[in-house]
Structure formats: C-alpha cells, structure tokens
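Please predict the structure of the following assembly.
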Amino acid sequence: MKYDRTYNFSAGPAMMPEEVLEEIRDEMLNYRGTGMCVMEMSHRSKAFLAIYEEAVADLKKLMNIPDNYKILFVQGGGTMEFAMVPMNLMKNGVACYVETGTWSKKAIAEAKKFGEVNVVASSKDKDYTYIPDCSNLDIPENADYVYICENETINGITYQQLPNTKGHVLVSDQSSMFLSRPCNVEDYGLIWAGVQKNVGPAGMAVVIIREDLLREDIGPKAPVYCNYNTHAANDSMYNTPNCWAIYCVGKVFKYLLKNGGVEAMEKKNIEKAAVLYDYLDQSKLFKASAEAGSRSLMNVTFRTGDDEMDAKFVKEAKAAGFDNLKGHRSIGGLRASIYNAMPKEGVEALVAFMKKFEAENE
Amino acid sequence: MKYDRTYNFSAGPAMMPEEVLEEIRDEMLNYRGTGMCVMEMSHRSKAFLAIYEEAVADLKKLMNIPDNYKILFVQGGGTMEFAMVPMNLMKNGVACYVETGTWSKKAIAEAKKFGEVNVVASSKDKDYTYIPDCSNLDIPENADYVYICENETINGITYQQLPNTKGHVLVSDQSSMFLSRPCNVEDYGLIWAGVQKNVGPAGMAVVIIREDLLREDIGPKAPVYCNYNTHAANDSMYNTPNCWAIYCVGKVFKYLLKNGGVEAMEKKNIEKAAVLYDYLDQSKLFKASAEAGSRSLMNVTFRTGDDEMDAKFVKEAKAAGFDNLKGHRSIGGLRASIYNAMPKEGVEALVAFMKKFEAENE
C-alpha cells in the first residue's frame, strides 16, 4: 500500500478507500474553487447543497431506492436510532424484535420504554452464534413492525434470508453490512445504518424510510430531533447536519458506483470472506465462532480457545501490520472486520500471517 | 491568503484556521505513523483515545474549567440540546428562559414539552435587537435553572453581563461565541455550544456540565442518548462519538492555546468588531441592526433599509471574494460573522469594499 498504511481490521470506525481519502485531502483547503473547505461551508450554500443532493441521488441509484422512500442523515448513531425507531413507528405500541446479540438487545431494551416488545425469536441458547429460524414467527396482529439487526457485528452473524413478517413492516439495522451487497429496499419499511463501519466517518446514521411511516406528531414529549419527520420534511437540514460525513459518504457512494456498485461489492466480499473462512475451517489452531449458515461476510469472528494465545496473536499481528484483530471486549476472542474498503490482498496477507503463526504455535 | 481562499462570513459552519486545515490535510492518509486516517480509527484505539484526552485537557486549560465539571461531546446539535437541557435539568419541572431571538425561542418551545416555562425577560418589543435587563428577574423559588442564549447569531446581540439568577443554576447556549472570550465557568451550571461556528465542523456540541446536575434516571421515556449522564459516565463514548469533530476541535484548541488563548482572542475580536461597527456608525448607507449596548462581537448585523440594495451588496461582495454576507432568511438584511478564525485583514478588506460600494451607490 502507498503511504505505509496498515491493514485495519477494526469493526468500526474502519477503513475507507484510499482514493477517497486522497480526494478529500486534495480538496481540504479549497473545495473546487469555492475558496473554502467543506467543513467551513454553510449547509445552506449552493456548494454544499450540491454535495448533499449528489449524495442522496447516488445512494438512491446504488440501492435502487424507490421514490416513496426518504433518505435521511441523522446524528446520534445507533443509540439514537434504537429510541427513534419505536418513538416513530409504534403507533399501536406493539413491536416484535429478533434477538441475535448485543445490538438487537440494546434495541430491545430501548424499545421497551415506548411500548410492548415481543421477542419473537432468539439465538441466546447458543450465545448468539447463529441467526434463528424466522420463517414462521408468532407476530401479534397489531404489531407495528418486526425489527432485526441484519448483521450482528460482535458475534459475526448475518441473515441469509429475511424474516417472514407476515405483512408487517420490517425494520433493519444494517450498520455493519450497509452497501456490502444488494438488498431489495421494498422488502423494508425502514433501514438504518451507522455509516462508520462500511461507508464513512462516525457521527451519522443513514435512515431510509417509507414515506407512509412518517408522522408529524409522535407524542407530546418527543424531542423535535427524534422525529423522523423533522428530518424528512427538511431534507435532513432542519438543523445543521453532519456536513462532513455527508461529504465523505457521498464520495464513497461515487467510488462504489464507479467500481460496479453493490453487486461488485458482494462478489468481492464473498471472495474475501471465503479466503478467511476456508482457512479457519481447516485450521487446527483457530476456529470460526459463528455457525456455517449464519456467517457474516463483514465481521469474521474466531478464536483459538485459549485467551492467552488469542492475546499473543493480536499482539504479533499488530506488530506485523494487521491492526484491531481483538474481539469485542464483551465476548473476547478474535475478529477480523473486512468491510468493502478492505482489499482482498489484506485478507490474503492476514491468512498468510495466521498460517505462519499457527505453524509457530503448534 | 494562500490557496486562493475566500473571506467567508458565514454564520456557521464557518472559517477554520488555515494552519489547522493544513495539518488535517497532511495527516489524512496516515495519522502520525498509525497507518490510518483518523476517520478510520476505532474510537477505542490508543491513538484515538489520546486525541480525545488531549482535546478534553486542552479545553479544560483554555476555559479554566474546574474539576467538578464534565466535558461532553454530544451529537444532534442545538436542536438536540434544546430538549436535553429540560429533560435532564428539570427536576422540579420548572425553568426560566430569557427570550432574545430565534434560538432562545426554539429552546423555549422545546422546554415546554417537559415542564413549566417562565419567560422572565424578553426583547421581543424591539424585534430582539437588544439584551433585556436581567438584573432583577422574577424567578420562582423552585425553578431548576435560568436559560439564556448568550449570543443570538441571527440578530447579532450578546450579553455584556450575565443575568442575576438569584442563586439558581445558569444554563447558557454559547454556540456562536464559544471560546471567543474568557468566561468564568463557575458562574454556570451548564454551558453548551454547537462547535460548527467558532470551533470546528458541524455535527457535535460541547457540553460543560457541573457534576451535581447529572442524574442517572431522567424518566422512563427518555432515550439513553438524551441523558447527559450516559455521556458523562462513559467519557463521551457510550457509543461511537463524532470522532472526526473531536479531532478537529482538538486541533483548534491547540491552535488557540498557542496563540494566546481566549484572552488573546477577545482582544482580537474586539478590534475586529470595532473596525466594522465604527464604519457602520458613520456610514450613510449601512446601519447596524443591534443596539449599541448589546452588539455581538461575532455576528455583526446591518442593513441598508432597502432590500434590493442589500441584495445588490451581497452579490457584488461575493464577486469580490466576500462570501455569505446575507442576513438570516428569517429576518433579511445583512450579516458578517467574524469568528475567531476570520483574520482582521478580512474585516478590513470588507470595510474597504463597503466604503467603495457606498461611494458607488450614494
């Protein structure tokens, strides 16, 4: 790599495409003749509005988003979304959640503040190492929505097929898989994603919401900021948005379009993940943590079974230029997050290093 | 100026120091040997934690913040703060607000959702062109706090002295004057400021809160994100913060420390504002909008009294390299925001241009 850059396997914030960073660098002191940096621009200026509009249009193209969906840029990350989803969508005060790990559990805890939460499926019995069967869920008639975390970053599991919601609205947290593969937006009522994993810098979530789910009045004690309609009715500029993040994700959207879109990303991501999983499946030292049918293409979790050996691996890998391979502090073990921006060579180099480490530690 | 940069008089986002932008540019592809951009760093990595800790320590030094105050970095901007202040501080459900323009009115409207709001002073009678007398406010005994917008960006007015709160907690929105002059933090229970005006990129507010005002439980329907204690108890990293903004404001803090701190900024800001107000006070074409005793050092509002002439001025000024001189769309007129990063030469050049424009339009 140029610039002596590290192979960064962080679960997020995470790698961004090098050519995107180069562009951002080159536009820092004077963005395209405006005489200012994007950070210095009024969000209501022509130059910034063009950046915003292109970002929205490019995302629409990338994901083939129908016209009856709104794209919102919202601050506060997943923690804010965990609250905003029930605050906005619980009309009847009833929702269903699928429990698959830390992030769905946090969403469940927050939703309980705002109404009745039915956990309709769970993989708790096996420490969230698989996605439970969601083909015949027991969904109350009056449920406002069914919520999933489509890729659980910590345990490294992902849905191979969407739940059968029996006609109810599907809400998905796509944070750690956003734009990693095609998805049919019409299958969802709402998709949200923190952008700091697969798309850009931390500090913003993208929300894609079907317009009929927007409500002007979501209750007398809901902050203005927490109403999706505040953002939808004002093109994400009711107040000053995270302009820098919009600028950066816009560049990543263009990069993806130029490089074959999400279809090409999926192909590349399948190849990349296979390099790692194939090795793990035959390794005597490392074992993949997630069940075969639920494995994430983005977050590959594994462990040696010996905490000291795991720590030794993390340390030696870092010294060799492979950073952030430690598993999430809540579950330990090891994890390689290989988002869109991680080149295949990075994964191949990691596997070569793992083989060497395995040989040295037989 | 280098880089053919514009004199940008935007009310926010606004100018940042050129040398700060240069540093950011130079660290883009590889931050100090980490092999990654700050945007790509795990917020829990050593490199990023060092950035965070330095930013907090430098701000503490700059503002001389006592140890019993916490510094928080929160997303959602002023709109989120308008709700979070009453959600967190209304223990008795009663607060007092001083009404001085758009931003205090927005804060009042949001606070009414959460309790009883007493507007204890207002400058509505003269279209918010002055700060009302706050020396003897009628504050209920059980009021949880007295809230002010210390510098109203739109009308360009600022407090010359703080209200007499009669022992009650003072809460201040310092967004458009943050770090523009010394302030005695102990006079306040809570100071918050959107950083996109005087300090850095949009997408983050700094909150400085006295520890005894933090409460673990702020009610059963408050989102986790909206509790200041969530952020205080986790060093602003309960969830992924706006890391990029922390990095950028940290650089601005260092720049300010290196350049004499807020004392030096105040001196420079008084000089800069005087260049403009002195001219306005003798101009036959332009008139300052704010009353003499309430004038902001940051946002200088003025008008010709003729909307077409105002528009002509904005257009010709822009062509001459002076951008964003249009007043806020809600009140019209003209406005020059001259935050810390606007060099004195920029204001002098603007006044020279205004004199020329005045001569041409007698």
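The mean pLDDT of chain A is 97. Chain A touches chain B through 74 residues (CB under 8 Å).
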